[in-house]
Amino acid sequence: MKKSLKIPATITYLFIFAVIIYNLSLGNLEFLGYGLVIGLLYFILLKADKYYNFSTSSIWLFSIWVFTQFLGGNLYVKETRLYDLILINILGDPFYILKYDQLIHAYTYFVIGILVYQMMSKHFQKGHKKSLILFAILASCGVGLLNEILEFSMVVFADAADAVGDYYNTALDLVFNLIGAIIGVWFISKLKN
Questions:
Q1: Which of 7, 42, 17, 30 is nearest to 151 (CA)?
Q2: What is the domain extent for residue 115?
Q3: Cα(149)–Cα(92) distance, rounded to whole angstroms?
Q4: Contact 180, 105 (CB under 8 A)
Q5: Can you say how many angstroms the Cα of residue 45 is from the centroid of all Cα atoms in its chain?
Q6: What is the full DSSP assignment across 56-116?
Q7: How many Å apart are CA 60 and CA 22, to the nearest integer?
Q8: Residues 148, 172: contact at Cβ < 8 Å?
Q9: What gap in Å lies between CA 23 and CA 16, rounded to an integer?
Q10: How far apart (Å, rounded) are the C-alpha atoms in residues 97 and 47?
């Protein structure tokens, strides 16, 4: 592991471990499952860094996402879970835009877009930047689909139907994933000019 990644990796793993212990004590199988999956995902990301040499800032951005993900599901503001908190009431029932959950989905895929772009740029020839941008956005959205499958798995196996949300929630998650991916890929492609 690169020396520059030791601090974010240590902080992130300690946090994930604390979240797993906390949710285990509550019997919260949903976030216990997320803790295990995200811990594995973070491990894979750090292993992939040996080949892709991600920017340290992109790893820090991913670590920030880990914190926002778990705080969203475990922290309450009065009686409202942070994920369900409406930040700005732009559009009401049934969409409830803009919720913390939607903001975090956009942020998550902003980060995923940056990481995917960095990975794919290693495999694209110079002069194919438009194709790289398009495929990085599409690949980031594919990661978003895997995330929604994970959420569905939590509904099935951890009996977390109330926590995950309904059809509107899933569809809006995908929309905000796309928005985040577009912004992230655009941002990193401008930096890499």
A1: 30
A2: 3-191
A3: 26
A4: yes
A5: 13
A6: HHHHHHHHHHHHHHHHHHH-EETTEEGGG-EEEEEE-TTT-EEEHHHHHHHHHHHHHHHHH
A7: 23
A8: no
A9: 10
A10: 37
pLDDT in tens, 147-185: 888 878 777 776 655 555 677 888 999 999 999 999 999
The residue among 16, 12, 121, 124 whose CA lies nearest residue 59 is: 12
CA-to-CA dists, residue 189 to 51, 118, 128, 193, angstroms:
20, 9, 12, 7
Residue 15 near residue 67, CB atoms below 8 Å: yes
Mean pLDDT of 71-82: 91
Q: Return the closest-CA partner of residue 112 out of 187, 34, 8, 6.
A: 187
Using only C-alpha atoms, the chain has a radius of gyration, in whole angstroms, of: 17
Q: How many CB atoms lie within 10 A of CB 7?
A: 13
Q: State both tokens at 36.
A: 């295990």
> Helix 56-74 to helix 29-52 angle, to the nearest 10 degrees?
180
pTM of the model: 0.90
| Residue from 139, 144, 107 nearest 120 by CA | 139
Integer Cα distance of 56 and 59 in angstroms = 5
Number of folded domains that form the chain: 1
User: How many H helices and E strands in the chain?
Assistant: 7, 4
Residue 92 burial (10 A CB sphere; 0-12, 13-18, 19+): exposed
